[in-house]
Design brief:
Blueprint: H1 5-11, H2 19-29, H3 39-46, E1 54-55, E2 58-59, H4 69-83, H5 89-101, H6 103-124, H7 135-139, H8 141-157
Antiparallel strand pairs: 1-2
Length: 158
């Protein structure tokens, strides 16, 4: 791993990604991101993209596709660690998704997000910059206000 020490150090800046996970990421996907046209292509190759089985307006299984088993295990473990960090956007994403879809689906979605972040960290050669837990609330304050007002109306009627 000596030739890839700089890439591993940049990947370790992502919450939930430790030294071993960064080494697995470099070993499995490499450091040259030019072979993947986008982060979505990498996620699909790794088997971390949700399936879309839809016909005649009915949605069937949304299982992820088969992919690299080692990479999937490392990303799921990193997602579990990232979900337990305090004050990060990844932790906020996990808790937001776990309420609606369950813990395991939220972990797979967070693993997908971690793979996307790793793609851009390796492609741009930069370190991860934390956006904060309130990033999505700041991004669309009207949506947050609508959600809060809907919740407060539901609580009053109950």
């Amino acid at each position: 791993m000596a030739p890839f020490a700089a890439e591993v150090e940049r990947l370790v800046t992502i919450p939930g990604v430790d030294q071993r996970t960064a080494e697995v990421l470099v070993a499995e996907i490499g450091t040259d991101m030019e072979r993947f046209p986008s982060a979505g292509h990498l996620a699909s190759w790794a088997g971390m993209s949700p399936g879309n089985d839809q016909s005649a307006g009915k949605r069937r299984s949304g299982r992820t596709t088969k992919g690299d088993w080692w990479l999937r295990a490392a990303l799921t473990q990193a997602a579990w660690a990232a979900s337990h960090t305090k004050g990060t956007s990844l932790s906020a994403q996990y808790h937001r998704l776990a309420k609606r879809h369950g813990k395991k689906r939220a972990l797979v979605a967070l693993g997908h997000t971690l793979l996307t972040i790793a793609y851009y960290v390796l492609k741009r050669g930069t370190c991860y910059i934390e956006l904060g837990a309130e990033f999505l609330d700041r991004l669309d304050p009207d949506r947050t206000a609508r959600g809060l007002s809907t919740k407060s109306i539901a609580n009053r009627s109950a």
